[in-house]
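quick one, two chains, predict together pls
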Amino acid sequence: MPLRFVLDEHLRGGALWKAIQQHNSAGIDPIDVIRVGDPNDLPNGSTDPEVLRWSWLNDRILVSLDRRTLPAHLAIHVQTNGRSPGVLIVRPGSMTSRVLFSLVLIAHAGDSADYQDRIEYIP
Amino acid sequence: MKLPDFLTRDPDGEIRLAGHRIGLYTVARLREAGCTPEQIAEELPSLTRGLIEQVLAFCAANLAEVDAYVAAYQKDLERLAAAPAGTGVNKMRRRMELLEKADARHGSEPGWSGLSVQEKLSRLESESPCEPV
């Protein structure tokens, strides 16, 4: 099953979300992405622990940007709950097409075990 | 730095816009990059235009402190990003490079652009069985 993602509130608008929608409309290797603020139980303004818990319960890798607090909160989350599908941080200034390609490759050719409990930087 | 009520400091030291996961750092970075309030609103659509204006006015009124906060934050992000990549990301980067080269090589072939990532990787594997994909 392809890996799934939840985009952080910082990434709700902007080029990446538009690129994902455009990519998915083409129909080849669509990626399953929702955004913080979309589900009723994951509102904008949720704290890091709340977002990490939601991503764990819903088995979606968190894709974030500009959050220096996530590594420490992920470590606490893993200690408390035992598992996280992982966190991907988009490097500032990255080309949108390469970030999108990273997500497509991780979703369709990635192994969930490689991302569990880890923070990784993409692309 | 004394914060107005539209900015909140979390126990972990993060300054964020009240009611949002978006930090002062993110808005200050966009401001530094020369984004207009309209562009910031497009990038961060969960923020109201009024809140963006308030944060930008706060940045302008507290320039030295905000600059110091942004510089320290940036250093933290760079330190974190310097951690070595794990197996999954290294594999992903290798495949990205292989597929970009393959797209340049096979792009004009009929049907190539309609293949899925897995189909392209399988084809590359059969072309060069000794090279791991």
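The longest strand of chain B covers residues 7-9.
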